[in-house]
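TICKET #2291
ISSUE: user wants both folds in one file
ATTACHMENT 1:
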Amino acid sequence: MAFTTTTRALVLGGGGITGIGWEIGVLAGLLDKGVDLRGADTVIGTSAGSIVGMNYASGTDWEALFTDQAHAGEHEPVIRTDPGVYEGWIEAFRAGAGDPEAVGAGFGRVARKYGASVDAETRRAVVRARLRTTQWPANMRVSVTDADTGRLELLGPHAGVSTETATAASGAVPGIWPSVQFNGREWIDAGMVSAANATLAAGHDRIIVLAPMYEGHAGIPSAQDDVARLNDSARAFLVIPDDASRDAIGPNPYDPNRAQAAAEAGRHQGRANAADVKALWG
């Protein structure tokens, strides 16, 4: 008799500090209803999701982390995107013409042209405050973008890179946070081309995607588009912010003063979505 094994993946997208809060809240709401996704064969995190995933997969006390969102402003500076940097982002999308690697390389040029609005020491302190582990969970993967080629790569426990370095690179938003150097390359935010990178979970049978930022840009697919593609060969379920969560998140994803509200709204969503998530997850 042949036996088949069902593989499961949890995908956590990017979305700034409010995205971190929202994803923590959604996962807390699921846990409230007895839905625990930490047994996923693979957890894939992009940018904000790399922080959340690293903490979640490592078994962090989730209630304590949820409570900590009320204090995000104590270690997170309020960031606003410089208009020139924003124009650079638009140009990267335009010049890339829907080619993910070309867009990624364009964002690499933005990183080199504008530098960072926050210094490297401040960035390291922020990442350390966000992380609750220095040990790689075996099932955790972090997406990063090569700033020169635009190529997307997944880092795991055997990449020879610390959890701090990997998550700092995955969230190195060009023009805001400093890019990260390792393995002789420069790395930037993997969420600039696709906020969720949901298609990285292809090959798994059941996939849950949390995407605080879900819209497509200039030929780059939205999270909904990616999940639709996944559903051609797997069972996938997407959670994006509802109206209440969007109001809580607000217009600036880098505002730590909204992290608590985003987490609370996310928790309500997690509870509301628990039955559907459980039905798919099995």
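ATTACHMENT 2:
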Amino acid sequence: MCAALRQAARAARLGEVPVGAVVVYQGEIIGRGCNAPIARRDPSAHAEMLALRQAARKLGNYRLPGCELYVTLEPCIMCAGAMLHARLARIVYATPDPKTGAAGSVIDPFADHRLNHHAQIVGGLLMDEAAAQLKAFFAERRVLQKAQRAND
């Protein structure tokens, strides 16, 4: 999760919402990603999606059995769907997302018995650190927006 937190810090430095993700296979990081939808002008450029793409290229397969994904924020439905299709063994997230979380906070496709793949879900690993990154980012954004309004 520490590597995912570093990716989240990278996203914040780039002006993106600070979410980071890594994919681990047999103890080795094989995919890394930080949020980049603004920079890439791509709504699918979430940290998890970028990490999954890199891991798939590394393994030479769109399926990632035996892999674990660590992410600093509970995945959204788009990312959860990609994780299910990738056949990840385990997803570990730091902090829940009460607005768009798709690993139990709002919805939970991972628990839907009608789907043919199920991954182990673990939440709360380094939750305080990830939440602090997000809070600091949005607090700074609010200050900048207030200053911009004052200058308009």
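RESOLUTION: both attachments delivered.
EXTRA DETAIL ON ATTACHMENT 2: Helices lie at 2-13, 37-40, 47-59, 77-86, 127-151.
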